[in-house]
């Protein structure tokens, strides 16, 4: 049996056993490190997915709460003349942590409030009631049907008109209710829920190498446009007028450049 300078046997049964033990120990370390990396990749992605879901839920709940409070405060100031109603729609952008550019989605947050101030019955407020719709800062005001004049309004409900016509059928719209509503497939005029969404996305990554270093430039062009339908009664013929209320809740056009240090 021969020995090396480190006093470990180089040949013989004992030498083979010790070399086998060292190799086995080294292989087990590599296996454990590889297993740890695989577990980190699997469970890390699950943690990121859970974090993204919690972030989405938390931001949505916070946006809803803020919008409800803000809408009620605003309608209190609008109701100084008697009554007021306000509907606010905010298309909120929520980024996604799983996207390479942190692009997420746009979700609508809706809040409504109505305030009726008490007044003297002998001196009721003058004028036809109105309702205001605020979509991402764009405001539209519509006249609302009243019991004394239910047909001549921009925003009317089929159920409300049906009840008023049951009491007094002399209003011009009573004979055209089915033509106005049922044939058009709507139950209420005004701003229709939903809308047509158009998303445009263009991303690019440029890499340039030279003797001075490496320069990487990312280009991001992303736009989300939502067009909602506004339906009003145009005239006494009972025809409906459609107009689009288009807003752009999210628009990004960014360019970022990284350069390696000299």
Short description:
The chain has helices at residues 12-78, 158-167, 177-180, and strands spanning 83-94, 105-116, 130-135, 138-143, 190-191, 196-210, 213-233, 240-259. It has 262 residues and is of the alpha+beta class.
Proportion of residues in helical segments: 25-40%
- How confident is the prediction overall: mean pLDDT? 79
* Main sheet: strand order: 2-1-3-4
The count of β-strands is 8
Rg, Å, rounded: 34 Å
Span between termini: 56 Å
- Count of alpha/pi helices: 3
Tell me the strand percentage band: 35-45%
Describe it.
The protein has 262 residues and is α+β, with helices and mostly antiparallel strands. 31% of the residues lie in helices and 36% in strands. It is built from 3 helices and 8 strands, in the order H-E-E-E-E-H-H-E-E-E-E. The protein has a 4-stranded mixed β-sheet with strand order 2-1-3-4, covered by helices on one side. Strands 5, 6, 7 and 8 form a 4-stranded antiparallel β-sheet that branches. The longest helix is centred in the first third of the chain and has 67 residues, at 12-78. The mean pLDDT is 79.
């Amino acid at each position: 049996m021969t020995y090396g300078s480190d006093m470990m046997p180089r040949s013989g049964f004992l030498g083979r056993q010790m070399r086998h033990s060292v190799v086995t120990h080294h292989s087990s370390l590599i296996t454990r490190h590889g297993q740890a990396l695989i577990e980190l990749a699997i469970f890390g992605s699950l943690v990121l997915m859970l974090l993204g879901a919690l972030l989405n839920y938390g931001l949505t709940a916070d946006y809803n709460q803020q919008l409800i409070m803000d809408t009620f405060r605003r309608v209190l100031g609008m109701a100084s003349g008697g009554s007021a109603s306000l509907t606010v729609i905010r298309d909120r952008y929520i980024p996604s942590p799983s996207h390479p550019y942190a692009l997420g989605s746009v979700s609508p947050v809706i809040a409504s409030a109505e305030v009726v101030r008490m007044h003297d019955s002998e001196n009721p407020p003058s004028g036809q009631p109105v309702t205001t719709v605020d979509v991402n800062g764009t405001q539209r005001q519509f006249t609302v049907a009243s019991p004394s004049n239910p047909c001549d309004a921009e925003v009317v409900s089929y159920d409300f008109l049906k009840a008023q016509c049951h009491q007094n059928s002399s209003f011009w719209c009573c004979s055209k209710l089915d033509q106005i509503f049922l044939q058009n497939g709507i139950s209420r005029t005004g701003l229709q829920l939903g809308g047509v969404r158009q998303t445009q996305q263009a991303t690019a990554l440029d890499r340039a190498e030279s003797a001075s270093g490496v320069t990487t430039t990312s280009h991001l062009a992303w736009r989300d446009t939502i067009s909602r339908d506004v339906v009003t009664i145009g005239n006494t013929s009972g025809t409906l007028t459609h107009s689009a209320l288009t807003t752009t809740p999210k628009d990004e056009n960014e360019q970022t450049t990284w350069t390696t240090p000299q």
